[in-house]
UniProtKB/TrEMBL annotation:
It comes from Paraburkholderia phytofirmans OLGA172. This is LysR family transcriptional regulator. Pfam families: HTH_1 (PF00126), LysR_substrate (PF03466). Coiled coil: none annotated. InterPro entries: HTH-type_LysR_regulators, LysR_HTH_N, LysR_subst-bd, WH-like_DNA-bd_sf, WH_DNA-bd_sf. GO terms for molecular function: DNA binding; DNA-binding transcription factor activity. Residues 3-60 form the HTH lysR-type domain.
Length: 298
């Protein structure tokens, strides 16, 4: 048995007010519409629901059951409508944003502003490497993520919006042959010891791709997920690492050699990604808009 919600609403209003005329005025339809919808409900239930006495109506015993349950059902529907509206207006809900391990430098201001504007939205951050974040977006585990793009781009199923682009710098021990130079060619690092970010990071993928284009097999002696540790290894003389320009401001480079990488020119491109093919929640859209407002203005 299927019940028309509108017919149920008209029936409940009729019982509540005891009159077709008063019910019609309350829901802003004609009396004939009320009568028609109540008859339809009686046909769907298979039992008479109202006793008609002149202009007054009273519920039958079955009608009383339908009235009580109808009140409950319409109450649930009203609550559902309110909750949906609340979510649409960002008054409640939750959002998990994927974040690259090197992204913690850029997003504190966005997270702070998001919490200020939407205090009832629960915001969680999931930290992963770039390739993992892409797979989680494609698999539906995440709606949106910040990641680092490299020359190969992103998978076709994903959409992206660039937030910022930065040059990549070589950061090495003080006594390297290129010390004191403002720029250094990537080919300089053939056969030189390197300390790189972990393999899942977009920066390492970009570097390996650039080395392949030069027909160079990089000599990687250590890897880590923490860029500060890599800089410390470089200062200790273990090898050269590579970092985007904004990270240099967080380092004491007095004991290091620093030069912008050229030939090829390498860029570290920060972007948000999401799926072309899936619904994007109001919370996710708010996150993207806020990233554009806060980060792209910097």
């Amino acid at each position: 048995m299927s019940i028309d919600i509108r017919a149920l609403r008209y029936f409940v209003e009729t019982v509540k007010l005891g009159s077709f005329t008063h019910a019609a005025a309350a829901v802003f339809v004609t009396q004939s519409t009320i009568s028609k919808m109540v008859r339809q409900l009686e046909e769907e239930i298979g039992q008479p629901l109202l006793i008609r006495e002149g202009r007054k109506v009273h519920p039958t015993d079955v009608g009383r059951v339908v009235y009580e349950r109808g009140l409950q059902a319409l109450g649930v529907i009203r609550e559902l409508q309110l909750e949906v509206a609340d979510v649409a207006q960002l008054g409640r809900g939750e959002l998990t944003v994927g974040m690259p391990r090197m992204g913690n430098l850029f997003f504190p201001a966005v997270v702070s502003e998001f919490r200020r504007r939407y205090p009832k939205l629960e915001l969680c951050l999931a930290e992963h490497g770039g390739s993992v974040l892409e797979q989680k977006i494609i698999g539906g585990e995440l709606e949106v993520a910040a990641t680092v793009l490299f020359s190969g781009g992103i998978q076709e199923k994903l959409a992206s919006r660039v937030i910022a682009r930065y040059a990549i710098y070589a950061v090495g021990p003080r006594n390297v042959p290129w010390a004191g130079r403002p720029t250094v060619e990537l080919s300089t690092f053939k056969d030189q010891p390197l300390v790189l970010l972990e393999e899942g990071s977009a920066l390492t993928r970009r570097l390996r791709s650039a080395f392949r284009e030069l027909d160079i097999e990089p000599h990687v002696v250590a890897q880590s997920g923490h860029w500060e540790f890599l800089a410390a290894l470089s200062e200790a003389g273990l090898g050269t690492t590579f970092l985007p320009q904004p990270f240099l401001a967080r380092l004491d480079v007095s004991g290091l050699s620093v030069a912008r990488v050229t030939e090829p020119e390498l860029e570290w491109t920060l972007a948000n990604i999401w799926s072309h093919d899936r619904y994007l929640s109001h919370a996710a859209r708010a996150w993207l808009a806020l990233c554009a407002e806060v980060l792209e203005a910097q």
